[in-house]
Write a structure and sequence with these properties.
- By secondary structure, this protein is mainly beta.
- It contains one helix and five strands.
- The chain has a three-stranded antiparallel β-sheet, with no helix packed on it.
- Strand 2 and strand 3 form a beta hairpin.
- The chain is globular.
- Keywords: Apoplast, Glycoprotein, Manganese, Membrane, Metal-binding, Secreted, Signal, Transmembrane, Transmembrane helix.
- It holds the Pfam family Cupin_1.
- Its main location: secreted.
Amino acid sequence: MHSHPGNSKVLLVFQRLICAEFILSSANIVYLKNINKGDSMIFPRGLLHFQLNIGKSPTPGLQILDFALFANNFPSK
């Protein structure tokens, strides 16, 4: 789960199948939708969401920004 406090996000599916979920915290409701090739979804600014490749293709990988920046072995000087 993550959010984008400064902008909305547009998800466009060019291949395969994506599972997208978001939480509407004001109503305590979770929405889950499979998005097919050619479909799109908009996540409004600040909305908690995630997307997952559930198609039959290999996953392109995932890099979580927090770990990329802060869980590394860069010198801290």
